[in-house]
Amino acid sequence: MGQKTTRPLSPHLQVYRWSPQMAISIFHRATGFVLATAGMLTLLWWLSAIGGGAESYAVFQKYVVGAGDSATSVELAINWFFRLLALAVIFSFFQHLFSGLRHLVLDMGAGYELKTNRTWALAAFVAAIFATALVALVVASRVIGV
């Protein structure tokens, strides 16, 4: 009982070299958290604004959708905050989606080769960025009226 064992210790995160596979795993968890908190809180606020009547919904629209021409600087700042939050939720959605699709392929038994796994991890990041940019461009073009 008193003898010293020479078993190896568990490696810590500092020992590992970062790879896209590690990053996409962490991002998948983080984006799930963003979708569950920021997205759900905004959805609940929207639903309660609908249930609260026209005046309540107008307040929601002023802060989240568009502050309008007669908005104060605080209202404009809050409106821009929600626009950035919406962009983060959209990116989180696409990142979580493409990462989940990658994981579905892995669950089927394909893509475990290191080079293939790395390629698909990077492709999920790139696809999420492009899909977010596409949605942002479509929304911006409709707001501008092009």
UniProtKB/TrEMBL annotation:
Gene3D superfamilies: Fumarate reductase/succinate dehydrogenase, transmembrane subunit
GO molecular function: electron transfer activity; metal ion binding
Record's GO cellular component terms: membrane
Transmembrane feature ranges: 26-47, 80-98, 119-144
Keyword Iron in annotation: yes
Organism of origin: Sphingorhabdus lacus
Gene responsible for this protein: sdhC
One Gene Ontology biological process: tricarboxylic acid cycle
Taxonomic classification: Bacteria, Pseudomonadati, Pseudomonadota, Alphaproteobacteria, Sphingomonadales
Residues binding heme: H96
The protein's name: Succinate dehydrogenase cytochrome b556 subunit
